């Protein structure tokens, strides 16, 4: 198949999933065309089946905001037409699904029928999409996609609750490439960070309010009163500065390191003992899956689709959003010498169920069904 993939080219989960999916499809012999405004973060190598088309957003003094959606729709029209694509797969509804609808209508006038699959990732539904300023367009573009997928049962449920959807939504969970995300031998890192054999906790996110990074720091602050530990914070975003301030107030700066955005996050995960994901909302929790693939158990909140991934009492623990006390208690259970090896083993076993080789064929099958239905 010749597939066009539209996504955000950033470190965010939806962009990562879209890019890894495209890479996997190309590896399996499909021709994949990425259409976005910047080279996706993980697409920094050459492959004969991978193409990248940059959306050129022209500016004009009249525009306070450059019309990305129009430039994207125009680029989709030309790529579909000249590269003879079989299907467009857009990740994250806003504004990709509506731009795809526009492109589809334009192509129709030229006698070209292009099936569109929209994948809902989370905040496009739970935070941004249901705001009245976007809701009518999101509802319309979901209902007018030829196929719709969501990354968890919970996200499907939320979508059906908050929007008037007349389309079947297929759940295809996120996935992981276990060839890349696996425990690596990086003991020298561990010794450098934890010279006295401390336990290593880790959190990775885009440091937005919804991630509740404050809870990560509070859990760590309480836990290290009884267990010698260090904390690594990977990623960057609006909450980083307030969190640095909080660390200073708590006097924990020597034990917490802010690493910023990291491409090789698997190297940090490889030496970690516990991953913290206390999010307020989380449709799936890809960052937790990446940790589990590197044999790191997870303390998470019960938000959204996380409990579909993190199995309470097995791969880690699922606590109520904001229940720092419970998270501290459960972290200590995981980190005890007799429990840690079992939790690590369970985390890896669970991650294997989401291996790309199990999930990718479900997308291919869905593409075929969608193409046949148009
Ligand atoms: O978590 C974010 O803020 C980024 C966001 C995105 O769209 O990139 O992540 C969402 O999509 C990921 C991939 O499907 C999911 O793993 C995340 O759980 C989801 N985030 C939220 O629902 C908050």
UniProtKB/TrEMBL annotation:
SUPFAM superfamilies membership: UDP-Glycosyltransferase/glycogen phosphorylase (SSF53756)
The protein's name: N-acetyl-alpha-D-glucosaminyl L-malate synthase BshA
Domain Glycosyl transferase family: 186-341
Taxonomic lineage from the root: Bacteria, Pseudomonadati, Bacteroidota, Cytophagia, Cytophagales
All copies of domain Glycosyltransferase subfamily 4-like N-terminal, residue ranges: 11-180
């Amino acid at each position: 198949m010749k597939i066009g993939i539209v996504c955000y080219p950033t470190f965010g989960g939806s962009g990562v999933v879209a890019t890894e999916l495209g890479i996997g499809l190309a590896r399996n012999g499909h021709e994949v065309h990425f259409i976005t405004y910047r080279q996706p973060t993980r697409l920094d190598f050459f492959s004969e089946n991978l193409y990248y088309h940059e959306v050129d957003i022209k500016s004009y003094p009249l525009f306070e905001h450059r019309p990305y959606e129009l430039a994207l729709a125009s680029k989709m029209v030309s790529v579909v037409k000249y590269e003879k694509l079989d299907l467009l797969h857009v990740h994250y509804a806003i504004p990709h699904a509506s731009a795809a609808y526009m492109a589809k209508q334009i192509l129709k006038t030229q006698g070209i029928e292009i099936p569109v699959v929209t994948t809902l990732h989370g905040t496009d539904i739970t935070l941004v999409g249901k705001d009245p300023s976007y809701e009518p367009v999101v509802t319309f573009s979901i209902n007018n996609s030829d196929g719709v997928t969501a990354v968890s049962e919970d996200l499907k449920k939320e979508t059906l609750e908050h929007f008037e959807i007349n389309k079947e939504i297929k759940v295809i969970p996120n996935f992981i490439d276990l060839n890349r995300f696996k425990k690596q031998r990086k003991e020298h890192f561990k010794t450098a960070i934890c010279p006295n054999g401390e336990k290593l906790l880790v959190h990775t996110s885009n440091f937005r309010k919804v991630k509740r990074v404050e809870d990560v720091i509070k859990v760590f602050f309480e836990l290290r009163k009884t267990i010698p530990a260090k904390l690594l914070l990977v990623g960057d975003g609006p909450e980083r500065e307030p969190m640095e301030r909080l660390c200073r107030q708590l006097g924990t700066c020597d034990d917490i390191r802010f690493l910023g955005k990291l491409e090789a996050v698997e190297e940090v995960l490889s030496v970690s003992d516990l991953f913290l994901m206390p999010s307020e909302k989380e449709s799936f929790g890809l960052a937790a899956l990446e940790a589990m693939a590197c044999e790191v158990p997870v303390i998470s909140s019960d938000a959204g689709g996380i409990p579909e991934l993190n199995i309470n009492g097995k791969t880690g623990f699922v606590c109520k959003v904001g229940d720092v006390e419970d998270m501290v208690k459960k972290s200590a259970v995981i980190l005890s010498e007799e429990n840690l090896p079992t939790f690590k083993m369970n985390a890896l076993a669970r991650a294997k169920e989401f291996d790309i080789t199990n999930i990718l064929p479900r997308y291919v099958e869905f593409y075929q069904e969608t193409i046949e239905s148009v």
